[in-house]
Amino acid sequence: MSGKLQGKIAIVTGGLSGIGDAIAKRMAAEGATVIAADLATEATTLGDGDLVPFHVDVADATSVAKLVDAVTARYGRLDCMVNSAGIGKDIPFLETPLETFDKIIAVNLRGSFVVGQAAARAMRDAGGGVIVNIASVSGMTGNVGRTAYGASKGGVVLLSRVMAVDLAQYNIRVNVLAPGPVDTPLVAQMHTPEIRQRWIEQTPMRRYASPDEMAGAVVFLCSADASYITGHVLAADGGFLGSGLTVAPI
Ligand SMILES: NC(=O)c1ccc[n+]([C@@H]2O[C@H](COP(=O)([O-])OP(=O)(O)OC[C@H]3O[C@@H](n4cnc5c(N)ncnc54)[C@H](O)[C@@H]3O)[C@@H](O)[C@H]2O)c1
């Protein structure tokens, strides 16, 4: 690795599984100290090392404030916030319980607001920073069964664009990574074999991505190489959004 994030202090929410885990490990390999903040750990103190687990529930503003306070108290600043924590469910619109809609919006969209606001306040006080929100191609086009998930991710896209406009004056950049299908525990739970086959057929590259294929794009967005990029949505989707009526080679 080339040390693109040497000396940076980063938080990756959802950092203990799937895409977040791959991003956290790659950012650490690029020289950052990374706090992998996740519901899936009990850790409430920051240990030593360059990849440190810490408990957070992004749907709980008090929990997020504790995370950001602990990081700024320990390291003196926060340079990068990557928000990968997320949940999803494929369910027809007419059968979606209100509780399911509320839960997905609370974690994916409201969570991105809460995490972004806490991070941006810390970054403003320290002269700047970078925020990357992980949305989805399902937040940019209507995929079947994704009323709540798609609405939450579409909300994350516009939330991020407005944040980019509001926060540019504080030297804070805000961008979005919109993955296509990526082989992770979330997808193992959401995608039936039939859904999997449909994604492969509709994706020009004809395969799912590995989580690691998302990590390089996030390192780029966090690095000085992206110093003039803000308010951008970067799709890492094997050509899904760019495709037309047919995707198979002729
Ligand atoms: N896998 C895909 O195909 C795909 C495609 C597009 C977008 N995404 C998005 O990428 C992100 C990561 O997804 P993944 O596939 O790696 O999923 P994953 O289930 O493997 O990982 C998600 C992580 O988020 C954590 N998490 C869930 N709720 C949380 C909460 N309230 N507070 C803190 N942490 C919480 C989980 O414990 C888990 O570690 C999600 O936002 C997801 O919507 C995934």
Would you identify the CATH architecture? 3-Layer(aba) Sandwich
Write the CATH fold name: Rossmann fold
Instruction: Name the CATH superfamily classification.
Output: NAD(P)-binding Rossmann-like Domain
- Strand line-up in the sheet with most strands: 3-2-1-4-5-6-7
For the record, the count of structural domains works out to 1
Structural class: alpha/beta
Strand content: 15-25%
Uncertain runs are none
How would you describe this protein?
The protein contains 7 helices and 7 strands. Strands 3-2-1-4-5-6-7 form a 7-stranded parallel β-sheet, sandwiched between helices. By secondary structure, the protein is α/β, with parallel strands linked by helices. The longest helix is centred in the middle third of the chain and has 28 residues, at 98-125. The protein has a single domain, classed as Rossmann fold (3-Layer(aba) Sandwich). The chain starts with 8 loop residues before the first strand and ends in a 14-residue tail after the last strand. The model has no long low-confidence stretch (mean pLDDT 96). Helices cover 41% and strands 15% of the residues. Nicotinamide-adenine-dinucleotide binds next to helix 1 and helix 5.
